[in-house]
Amino acid sequence: MKTKLALSLIFAVASANAATISFSNFDSTTFAGLAIVDSSNNALGTSSTAEIGFFSDEALAGAGDFSTWNSFGSAANFGGGYSISGIYSGDASSSTAGASAFIGQSITTLITSAAGSEYLVAKSAQTFGQDNPLFTATVNLYSDSDITYLFGGIAGSVVDYGGGPQSSIQTSAVPEPSAYALLGGLLALGCVMLRRRA
Questions:
Q1: What string of DSSP letters covers 39-55?
Q2: Is the N-terminal amide bond of 133 cis, ω within 30° of 0?
Q3: CB under 8 A, 24+ apart: contacts of 144-147
Q4: CA contacts within 13 A on the Cβ side of 176
Q5: Tell me, what's the pLDDT at 147?
Q6: How far apart are alpha carbons 81 and 88 in whole angstroms?
Q7: Comparing C-alpha atoms, which of 115, 136, 111, 113 is closest to residue 126?
Q8: How many domains does the chain have?
Q9: Which residues partner with 119 through β-bridges?
Q10: Rounded to whole angstroms, how far apart are CA atoms 186 and 195?
Q11: Closest CA to 40 of 177, 168, 185, 133
Q12: For the chain (length 198 residues), average pLDDT per consecutive 10?
């Protein structure tokens, strides 16, 4: 009986030790925020998602290859709990105990448009910590001054989602392989022309 009680207490303490990160792009009190828009300056709809994690290879992420993404907890749909396009709010929770790959990595936000065709990658200067006994963090693209955009991140047009005019930031489409082929072909053609001149 004592063994079962001790194991139950250990399990309860271990379960309570999950790291929790709150993430959003607006102030829920004033509704001031940094709206997320697509490359045509349309606010991302409520089927778009935002999630927290990190990239094992940030250079690949900067080129539009998101295959090294490590997701932390669950994604949040846009709407910010108010069904408003262009804003999001969520809480992600998971364990970062012991030798977790998350510990020491920059907390990064990956935003995906509803169609899955445009993305925004925003890296915070904050890093994941060990949940010993508890790790919490808040990442807000609107109020944090230490955000670096790895993909997308061009300033968009002014948006009014009900709280007055707000600044916005654009997502970007991942370049098609044919675009890289075209650029490579143009570069090769330029090299040939320069060589003929010389």
A1: TTSPBP-TT-EEEEEEE
A2: yes
A3: 147/122, 147/123
A4: 3
A5: 97
A6: 8
A7: 136
A8: 1
A9: 112, 172
A10: 14
A11: 168
A12: 43 59 94 95 96 97 96 93 93 88 96 96 95 89 96 95 91 74 66 70
Report the 10 Å Cβ neighbour count for 110.
Answer: 22
Closest CA to 45 of 37, 33, 53: 37
Cβ atoms of residues 90 and 72 within 8 Å: no
| Amino acid 182: pLDDT | 59
Q: What is the pLDDT of residue 178?
A: 56
In terms of residue numbers, what domain contains 69?
2-197
Tokens 């271990």 sit at which residue?
14
Residue 91 one-letter amino acid: D
Alpha helices in the chain (DSSP H): 2-16, 58-62, 177-197
- Could you give the CA distance from residue 143 to residue 84 in angstroms, rounded to a whole number? 19
- pTM given for the model: 0.81
- Percentages helix, strand, coil for the chain (3-state, rounded to 5) are 20, 40, 40
